[in-house]
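Quick note —
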Amino acid sequence: MANNKPEKRPDKKFFKNLYSDPFQSPRANPKHAFDQVNGETQQTQSEYITQVQMRKRT
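Predicted structure written out below.
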C-alpha cells in the first residue's frame, strides 16, 4: 500500500519569521512585539482594557 501523503517541500517559504528577539525571553511573542518592551507588556491590564474600550467607542 502506497503512502498517499504529499511530501513536504523544504524550499517552500510558507512561514518565515522575520522577527528576531534580542532578549530571548519565553514570554516575548513576535506577534505582539509592537506592544512589548523587552518582552514584557508595557501597559497594565486595566490600562489595556480601557484602551480597547475607547477604541470600540470611536
